[in-house]
Amino acid sequence: MTATDTRHFSLEFFPPRTPEGIEKLRATRRQLKQLKPAFCSVTFGAGGSTRDGTLRTVLEFHADGMHAVPHISCMGGAKAAIAEVLAEYKANDIRHVVALRGDLPSGAGAAGDFRFASELVAFIRQEFGDWFHIDVAAYPECHPQARSAQEDLAAFKRKVDAGATSAITQYFYNPDAYWHFVDACHAAGVTVPIVPGIMPIASYTKLARFSDACGAEIPRWIRTKLQGFGDDAASIRAFGLDVVTDLADSLLERGAPGLHFYTLNQASLTSIIWQRLGI
Q1: How many domains does the chain have?
Q2: 100 - beta bridge partners?
Q3: Annotation says 20 is catalytic
Q4: 139-171: per-residue pLDDT in tens?
Q5: Strand partners for 133
Q6: Quick check: is 111 in a domain?
Q7: Which terminus of the chain has fewer CB atoms gathered within 10 Å of its CB, N or C?
Q8: What are the CA-CA distances from residue 114 to residues 9, 84, 142, 161 (Å)?
Q9: Does the residue 2 lie in any domain?
Q10: pTM, whole model, 2 decimals?
Q11: Does residue 1 lie in a domain region?
């Protein structure tokens, strides 16, 4: 299908840690740049382990003429340090960030100056006004640490009330979960765009590991199919392309405000799905 001009299609990458990884990401970037994404976000890394890598990667994307968007994680961070990072992004004309609570850095003894992403969003607005477009995370299937869906929705609303501009969801394979979450947000008075996160399927074992860690459900029929393919990588790839393309197409058909692809620094699957969708 052909997307309207009001929809935004974006990509996510992680900062490489080795020279080989840096070169691989550069090759991936050159390929995916042809898709003309609205923006490319760069993750902060588990445990806040890649702050410098995020900055380096964002500035390299920016220098290449792409709209680069850094993740800012606040857990374990001091206000002064986070303000310094944000000021550096502003000095480089970066006007869009993804504000997250994140994980406590390894070896950190305290949570730092922030406990929740809503506090980080409020801090960014206080220090930088409207300079930054602020995306936050949303969890259609509920954050794995939330005690209830109601608590999770309330936490999301606090982020929006603090000044978030829009949201990107955790990936999912059950579209009903997304639409139910959007309906609940609207009922609670939250009307910011909530963009679905899309995870291409390249490996069942990796997908299962990611999903177990982040609380994203793999529907039983998908899990059973993938398990049945065993080590048949070609069948996993073909099945995954069909499943994810159908999911993305159905989301757009029902009016989703865009799609955000978790590339895992790979170009092939995202490119194919993007082309199948005609975006």
Answers
A1: 1
A2: 73
A3: no
A4: 999 999 899 999 999 999 999 999 999 999 999
A5: 96
A6: yes
A7: N
A8: 30, 15, 21, 17
A9: no
A10: 0.93
A11: no
